[in-house]
Automatic annotation (TrEMBL):
Stated name of the protein: tRNA (Uridine(54)-C5)-methyltransferase TrmA
A Pfam family assignment: tRNA_U5-meth_tr
Cellular component, GO, one term: cytosol
Similarity section: Belongs to the class I-like SAM-binding methyltransferase superfamily. RNA M5U methyltransferase family.
Native source species: SAR86 cluster bacterium
A biological process term (GO) from this entry: methylation
Keyword Transferase: yes
Binding-site positions, S-adenosyl-L-methionine: Q163, Y190, E211, D270
Xref: Gene3D superfamilies: 2.40.50.1070, Vaccinia Virus protein VP39
Record bears the keyword tRNA processing: yes
Length: 337
């Protein structure tokens, strides 16, 4: 049974109709890649086997082209390759790249100087990381233009989550926008860098977004400024704290913002693979319309089974990673009348 059949079987109790699947191109789609580094080569695991590679066709072309050039530079420098165990890449639509070199040794100024020379030669930015320490040849911020129906800018660092498939992100945004009916105000949990917060601010009267990652909050703030948006407010609140804030409790992190003053018509959820906690399930039940984006069909089905007062009104699959078991879901749940 393939992943599409399996995913449909998981949700057919809640949505028996056929589900449209959006297919990604088979190569050049990954704008974020992570590799091990051993014996002078990049490593990855496929079907339980460790592979030694020099480039990756699945990666953004700029990343794939850079990989062998960077490997030569690393291997030519004892300082750079000693105790290097991981290399991460992030690229944007302007072909700008941030490379993260992660070490089993403390990064220092000497290593930064050597990295700066390599970064200049290859026209990239390099972030050096070791336990509790980070150095960078730049401000480690990557600007991205999302070419959806209404293009917008986002920002990311090597410490933030960012949707890795550069072809699918605009399509997912377009679909979510098309799903919105009767918008008033939006509450968003797990907002990340603002992938949905920014475009949906053009549809909703007000948006209140929450996220626990400080770097993501910084990137969201930059995106709000770059896109000239004035109707997004955000805070680092747990789900319990959001529930309390909705009943009137004030937190210093809200900076005077009162959630009781919002007229929320929709809740947007884009949780990690583990799905929704019981606290979030309780919070969901306060809303009539829930936009649920999931990267794990199994936890999605488990969560929907707990939301007994809701039905799936709209849903599509996104095959972001072809020839793997991963599948993304974009859906709307509506409370039964």
């Amino acid at each position: 049974m393939n992943k599409l059949e399996n995913s449909h079987n998981l949700i057919k109790t809640f949505y028996p109709d056929p589900v449209k699947t959006n297919i990604s191109p088979a190569s050049g789609f990954r704008s974020r890649c992570e590799f091990g580094y051993r014996n002078g080569s990049y490593t990855m695991v496929s079907n339980g086997q460790k592979l030694y590679i020099s480039k990756l066709d699945l990666a953004h072309p700029a990343i794939s082209e850079l990989m062998p050039k960077l490997s030569i530079k690393i291997n030519d420098s004892y300082l750079l390759h000693k105790k290097l165990f991981q290399v991460n890449f992030r690229a944007n639509n302007f072909n700008k790249i941030i490379v993260s070199l992660i070490y089993h040794k403390e990064v220092n100024v000497e290593l930064l100087t050597e990295s700066s020379r390599i970064a200049k030669d290859l026209n990239i930015e390099i972030v050096l990381r070791s336990k509790k320490k980070l150095l960078s040849t730049s401000n480690e911020i990557l600007e991205e233009l999302i070419n959806s129906n209404n293009p917008f800018y986002l920002y990311q660092t090597d410490q933030t989550f960012f949707q890795p498939n550069r072809y699918m992100v605009p399509r997912m945004v377009n679909l979510v926008e098309s799903f919105i009916k009767g918008p008033k105000d939006l509450l968003e949990l797990y907002c990340g860098c603002g992938t949905f917060s920014i475009p949906l601010s053009r549809i909703f009267n007000k948006v209140f977004a929450t996220e626990n990652n400080r770097k993501s909050m910084m990137c969201l703030d930059m995106a709000i400024s770059k896109n000239n948006i004035s109707n997004i407010k955000y805070s680092r609140l747990s789900c319990d704290e959001v529930s309390e804030a909705m009943t009137g409790r004030l937190f210093n992190r809200l900076k005077g913002e009162k959630l009781v003053d919002y007229n929320f018509s929709h809740l947007l959820l884009d949780p990690p693979r583990s799905g929704l906690t019981d606290d979030v399930i309780s919070l969901v039940n306060r809303f009539e319309n829930v936009i649920y984006i999931s990267c794990n069909p199994e936890t999605y089905a488990k969560d929907v089974s707990k939301l007994t007062d809701y039905k799936i009104s709209k849903i599509e699959f996104f095959d972001q990673f072809v020839n793997t078991n991963h599948l993304e879901i974009v859906s709307v749940l509506q409370k039964s009348k």
